[in-house]
Specification:
Distance between the termini: 25 Å
Number of strands: 31
Helix content: under 10%
Structural class: mainly beta
Shape: globular
Length: 418
């Protein structure tokens, strides 16, 4: 089916004027186009929503990269303004960070962009705390941009070019940022690998006063690899009572998972490490809501080993003794990327296979099933780095955010039950 409709996609792109010109991230010159979505809403019927293969999820709207003056998309996150009730997408681009009002999701409004702090980069990550966005990038000397999201309430003539409220520069480039909203700490990961005392392990930044971040040290794991590519940090409420109320760090450290107690920033302690067979690149994972299980993706195993999308589930009921619980194999050969849990579902960004929604309600009995999908890369499901970079499923409206490396921002929603 994908081969059949590929020509349709090319024709649609040519008609719309969609452009991803320039392979050089530092020399992008794309004019602003009409900020209205490129593709109208489409119900998922007979396995298709417009030109997109689907199962149980409808296309709501889309904003192309050309509208946001970019040639590549990457990470995304969300913010709900509790004062107004409006929902906003924050999307990383190679040229900066875009802010989109999706309160009327079938007519999203591109409000504008916070440009890069230094140079363009295909890697940019965002998290939110206390109505502020915190943004890092792998661009040299980028540091951390802090942007007060309440400023978006006052945008009357979009799109605008924004400036950051604060720029924290005690580190240069970083791969990602993790925030524990309970404690008010940001954890900068993948920074200062060869130049700092933590070898790319997390840096502890106190952001309880968001516009005045404070350096409080970092963590050097005693595991086989200190460098952390991605992580989750929680105030622990899981079944292991030895760590009740502690601030627990789960690091995806390239060749292993690291579990650490980072409650005392002056004395962080490695609790345990665990690896698995066919390790290629331990990339990112997320706790189930009861914190019994940790669900992990290895970004390079599909491409290098050759099996279909592999999702690994670890039993973390005893943090001192983690163990592999089960392995789920997906329907396609596509590479897995970021995945997030909401309720009984795992929302997996699966590059060329789009987003896949997995039912994890019976994970204890080693049963995981695909509940639906929305495929933003109709051409094929090969193990290559195109298509969906990330997914954000946490809006109360039920709108799901897809950030696609080539197609920009795509909003989808679960199909109505007949």
């Amino acid at each position: 089916m994908k081969t059949t409709i590929y020509a349709i996609i090319i024709l649609a792109v040519l008609i719309s004027g969609y452009s991803c010109s320039s392979d050089d991230d530092n020399n992008v010159n794309i004019p602003i186009s009409n900020p209205s979505p490129l593709v109208n809403a489409a119900i998922c019927e007979n396995g298709m929503a417009g030109v997109y293969p689907c199962n149980g999820y409808d296309l709501v709207s889309r904003i192309p990269l050309s509208t946001m003056q970019a040639s590549k998309g990457n990470d995304s996150w969300g913010w709900t303004d509790i004062t107004t009730g409006k929902e906003y997408v924050i999307m990383g681009l190679n040229t900066g960070t875009a802010f989109i009002d999706i309160s009327t999701p079938d007519e999203p409004i591109y409000l504008g962009k916070l440009p890069v702090a230094t140079t363009n980069s295909s890697w940019r990550d965002i998290k939110v705390y206390q109505d502020h966005a915190f943004i890092v990038s792998e661009a040299d000397d980028h540091g951390m941009q802090v942007f007060d999201l309440t400023r978006l309430r006052n945008v009357t003539n979009p799109p605008q070019t924004f400036s950051s409220d604060t720029r924290y520069t005690e580190f240069g480039n970083a791969h990602n940022i993790v925030i524990n909203e309970d404690s008010g700490y940001a954890y900068i990961v993948g920074a200062q690998r060869n130049t700092g005392p933590y070898n790319g392990g997390p840096l502890f930044i106190n952001i309880q006063d968001p516009k005045n971040p404070v350096n409080e040290g970092g963590f050097l794991s005693t595991g086989a690899r200190a460098y952390t590519h991605d992580a989750q940090v929680v105030t622990y409420t899981g079944p292991d009572m030895d760590y009740a109320g502690k601030e627990i760090f789960i690091g995806s450290n390239e060749i292993e998972i690291v579990i650490a107690d980072v409650t005392d920033k002056n004395n962080p302690v490695t609790i345990a490490t665990i690896n698995y067979s066919d390790v290629e690149y331990t990339h990112q994972g997320w706790f189930t809501e009861d914190m019994k299980y940790f669900i992990l993706g290895d970004e390079l195993d599909e491409q290098r080993v050759g099996f279909n999308t592999r999702t690994l589930v670890f039993d973390f009921q005893d943090l001192d003794n983690p163990k592999l619980h089960m392995t789920y194999t997906g329907a396609t050969a596509a590479i897995d990327h970021n995945a997030y849990v909401k309720g009984n579902f795992l929302y997996l960004s699966n590059y060329r296979a789009g987003i896949r929604i997995l039912d994890i309600s019976d994970i204890e009995n080693k049963n995981i099933n695909e509940a639906g999908f929305f495929d933003t890369y109709p051409a094929d499901d090969n193990a290559d780095f195109n298509g969906v970079w990330s997914v954000y499923p946490y809006f109360e409206s039920g709108v799901i955010v897809i950030s696609d490396t080539e197609r920009g921002l795509i909003l989808v929603r679960k199909s109505a039950t007949p």
